[in-house]
Amino acid sequence: MNYQRSSALFEAAQQYIPGGVNSPVRAFKAVGGTPIFVSHAKGAYLYDVDGNRYVDFISSWGPLILGHAYEPVINAVIEKAKLGTSFGMPTAIETELAALAVKMVPGIDKIRFVNSGTEACMSAIRLARGFTGKDKIIKFKGCYHGHSDAFLIQAGSGAVTFGAPSSPGVTKGTAKDTLLADYNDLKGICQLAQEHKGSIAAIIIEPVAGNMGCISPSQAFIQGLRSVCTKEGILLVFDEVMTGFRLAAGGAQELLDVSADILCFGKVIGGGLPVGAFAAKTEIMSHLAPEGAVYQAGTLSGNPLAMSAGLAMLQALDLEPQIFKSLAEKTAYLHKGMEAVLVRHKIPHTINRVGSMMSVHFTNEAVTDFTSAALGDNETFKKYFHGMLSEGVYLPPSAYESYFLNDAISYEDLDFTIAALESIADSLK
Ligand SMILES: *Cc1c(COP(=O)(O)O)cnc(C)c1O
User: Fold this and answer.
1) Residue 97 sits in the same domain as residue 231
2) Is the pTM of this model over 0.85?
3) Which of 24, 179, 407, 411 sits a CA distance of 20 to 30 A from 340?
């Protein structure tokens, strides 16, 4: 494939934008080479500025669960834009989206919209601290909750990929209130809860992790986490920015049959526009300004364009909940097909999959936490990424990221992807 125009645009971008990108993982630093500049996309396919076509397995890192340029979303945004893009005043569509989200997600009464998953998680933690009157939080190594200070401590994907598990600029004062635990390690959580008894406001977790590859929690772990939180008066915060409206209409809570106290959303809930949200029972949400004293605000929060995109997206999912099943079946098909190729070519691998999230790790060890995710062979991953790219398959450009399938991907596209792996498999040895 020819990447001439992408290369030229990347050169130009680097002159004016740090590293040439507005979010680090886009820069291909983990895999080498030049990032692809997108021209447009439709359904399952991305088209770059050099005219190459790719089957897309990142779906804008999750939001586009129904594929690119999904017409009901595009039309809703166009119609809304004609009426004005932002007012800094209430509009009816905010309540429409809020009511639909509250209907779809178990165990929440109220929801507050923000502009990103980062804001959602940051605000959820402030609310948890305000509600409980406690300072400390526990997060899991390898989980990513956006780039606010309290979370940039062993933060998965982007941060790990670039060898900066803790970032300069995050103060020791902030870091000391973030305690770390290993994913799937209930004993570790019980110990921390005892050591810091009475001072932990919240435990935040990706209920299915997607920022160290895709990692499923064991039932014992996730149910145990719920029990510890209930027993110790700790709020359980599910960061469902990836999993919300993706793994099921009710997200990971529904899939895993466990309930959290505060939920964070992003990605799918915005239908491809910048939206985040956090939600809980009234008892907790009433502590937020202007009702309560925990401050949180946003000039563009709940703006009509973003709300119309989110509403069109959630309405489609609410009307056709079998989409989640069909997506999971497609992902299982891809898993099986890729697995067969890797086995036949004797390439060490572990494939993890939950619903429409999946990741391929080049190790034979089970991948259940950050330590085991790091065992994957990155040299093989680089060859795999670039090999698949040259065959017309766009995968996440980091071994620590999950694939997000979208429903526009057909079985022919999956066969195409499996055939692509077959044709590059020998180069992975
Ligand atoms: C993407 C992501 C975030 C951050 O969302 P942004 O919209 O990028 O700020 C937070 N948590 C999880 C689990 C995510 O995957």
Assistant:
1) yes
2) yes
3) 407
